[in-house]
Amino acid sequence: MKISKHLSGVKVKRSLPKLSLPAKLAFASVLLLNLEASAGIKANKNILDLAVFSSAHLSINNFVDISVSGRVLDEKGQPLIGVSVKVKGVNTGVSTDVNGGFTIEAPENGTLVLSYVGYATQEFPVNGKTSIIINLKPSTTTLNEVVVTALGIRKDERKLGYSVSTVSGEDLNKARESNVALSLSGKVAGLSVTGTNGGPGSSSKLLLRGLTSFTAGSPLYVINGVPMDNTQRGAASEWGGADYGDGIANINPDDIETMTVLKGQSASALYGSRAVNGVVLITTKSGKKNSGFGVEFNSNIQFDKPVDNTDYQTTYGQGQLAESGILGIKPRNAAEAVQTGNLAWGTRLDGSSVPQLDGSTGTYSNKSNYLSFYRTAPSFTNTVALTGGGDASSFRLSVSDLRGNSIVPNSYLDRKTFNFNGNQSVTKKLDINIVANYLVETSKNRAGLSDGPGNPNNVQFIAPNVDQNILSPSTGANGRERTFTNDTYVTNPYFAAYNFQNNTQRKRLISSLSAKYNFTDWVFAQARVGYDNINDLRISIEPTGTAYRGDNGTMTQYNYQTNEFNADVLINAKHDLIKDFLNLDLSLGGNIRKSDFGGTSIGGNGGFIIPYYYSLTNFGSRNTSLLPDQTTKKQVNSAYYSADFGIKDYLVLSTTGRYDTYSSISSTVGRGIFSPSVLGSFIFSDLFKIKNVDLGKVRVSYAQTSNDANAYANQVYYNVN
Predict the structure, then answer these.
(1) Are 553 and 475 a contacting pair, CB within 8 Å?
(2) Nearest by Cα to 181 from 234, 275, 231, 253
(3) I want to staple 644 with a disulfide (CB 3.0 to 4.6 A). Which of 27, 350, 370, 654 is the partner?
(4) 45 pLDDT exceeds 90?
(5) Rounded to whole angstroms, what are the CA distances from 168 to 95, 180, 347?
(6) What angle do CA 174, 179, 184 make, to 5 degrees?
(7) Do 393 and 291 meet the contact criterion of CB atoms below 8 Å apart?
(8) How far, in Å, CA of 481 to CA of 253, rounded?
């Protein structure tokens, strides 16, 4: 037939059986007409053939597909990853890769539909083009932003009866800190962020406005829905001590997608007594489905430099009060110089000659240069992340290495983290997610935080006419520490930095496994288990030659183990009770938390047998003790609910409640603690249209929470002497 000759070379991807029913009937009738004309009426053959060719050409050309390649960019011209690209009227589609690129088969006169979170959905006519570039515009409905709230439930931010602040990982890294919590400083209204001067990886303290307890501590940190231990390690007193960091310092900033701060007790009541000081939700980065394979490399370097905020006087020099107690005198010999190295009660600095700490002679003039003891310290972070995703799965695997040097010489932090986040859609209704974060951290010579022994920061108390370089080398010919004050517990800073040892090691695994099943588009159930395992090792050595020791030094080794297991179940339903008027968002769940903590310490007695050989085997005897006096174990069983009633999207009434029972509270006094909250939110700008007002909202809330119950807290012990 001539029709086959006419269509030769035409690319047809959809066979005739896939044509619409009217097209099939029209095509069949034309063919029959052509056959009849060929058999009976030869005179009209050419006319009929022409009709057949034209009909076939029109019917088939509407279904010819072409390959369309393109890139999707944001308003700044940067590629958007994971944008959904579909052909209008077709359910299947593709997602953009790490370069914002995509390739899709579409009718040459078809329309592409592009959608992406935070951006307006856009339709783009193909018009026969095979290469296109599309710029998406941010959504104009940003006021309806969905945020993560307690228990990981996503809600419309403007309808909440409490305040929520979300900080992106990109913003956190603009002011990078080895402890990511310190990066929240200045980014969340009503949040006070403070730290210690303990060097890289030292502790942070977050205090939310409105918490009135004098003993209020840091908030509860929840990572991917699982609470994590944030115990602060170490303490300082008049006898020394250091800050060994807290739990949040173990999280790699490069792995964080967002940090969300739930403000007020109403926001955190669903987490019970542990959240009495607020909640910070951490969501780590994950892979995107249909994104292809990608590699991300991030390298960062920063420098810490000591800053002198003191206002020490530099008019009077080293010395002490004269025997009369009225006039100050300069050192008259090397012994007096050693006794007064941190005293500045001498006469006015006049440039005269005075004995020095090492027996030499120097000028009695201002040499205040104690900052020279410190150094400008670089910190390096390198992170490699592999990402990928198909139609039903996605993953992200990252490896990060941090070398954070302290401004105190011979002190640093080395942290290696491994993070995995994987998601698998087993069926259209069942999703499984696994997250694991493994950390290996070592630190050398954590600096002391008090004026006690072993603290190199005592260098700042040196007299203004004493050059700090005179304190090095820190030992004399006999190997003993060279002191510079009349107090042997004020350690020579170089001896503290290079001879004392205060080293720690931490290995930690934070993991979770969750499964989510969607019964309908408005009801789902979720089950999750989480495990947090911490193993800490700390070695403290007072070396041979320490001025205040009469033996060859001592050594103590500490081992701590912390475990926490969480298992929870959550059912959520969101549905209109009265269409377009009253809707309900209801959550019901329960949680079981088991935690235990224990450790041991081993110390030597009588000093090292062999000088300078620092080993627990180098003692005549050793003593071992439990830390604390007994291993603590605790279990908490919880049940909770959350119900939001929304009226016409402008009035929301909410209530939450959580009931916790503690194994640490005797049943005779009642083990249960109930934490309720009631909230209301009225968006009056939706009810009363006010000129130049985009959003007007009034919210009220009430909540009642209490602090956690420690193990053995209600036990009373009596000692008989």
Answers:
(1) no
(2) 253
(3) 654
(4) no
(5) 23, 12, 57
(6) 50
(7) no
(8) 41
Of the candidates 360, 414, 405, the one whose C-alpha atom is nearest the C-alpha of residue 379 is 405
Supply 162's token pair.
Answer: 């409490």
- Bridge partners of 44, per DSSP, are none
Mean pLDDT over 377-392 rounds to 93
Take residue 536 and report the two structure tokens written for it. Answer: 């800490």
Here the tokens at position 22 are 């009217």
Instruction: Show the tokens assigned to 231.
Output: 């115990």
Burial class (CB in 10 A: 0-12, 13-18, 19+), 28: exposed
Q: Reduce the DSSP state of residue 601 to 3 states and report it.
A: strand
Question: pLDDT class for 713, splitting at 50, 70, 90?
Answer: low
Q: Is the pLDDT of residue 368 over 70?
A: yes
Instruction: Please tell me whether residue 671 adopts helix, strand or coil conformation.
Output: coil
Q: Is 637 left (phi over 0), alpha (psi -120 to 50) or beta?
A: beta
Question: Where in 17-130 does DSSP place strands (E)?
Answer: 65-73, 84-87, 93-95, 101-107, 111-116, 119-125
The string over 155-188, giving b where at least 16 C-beta atoms fall within 10 Å of a residue's C-beta and e elsewhere, is: bbbbbbbbbbbbbebeebbeebbbbbbbbbbebb
Residue 523 neighbours by CB under 8 Å, 6+ apart: 571, 572, 573, 575
R_g of the chain computed on alpha carbons: 36
Measured N-to-C along each axis, helices 21-40 and 45-61 cross at an angle, to the nearest 10 degrees, of: 160
Q: What percentage of the chain reaches a pLDDT higher than 90? A: 48
Q: What is the pLDDT of residues 647-700, one digit of tens each?
A: 887 899 999 999 999 888 777 777 688 889 898 988 888 778 788 887 788 888
DSSP structural state of residue 648: T
Please give the domain boundaries of the chain with CATH numbers for all domains: 2-61 (no CATH), 65-135 (2.60.40.1120)
Model pTM score: 0.77
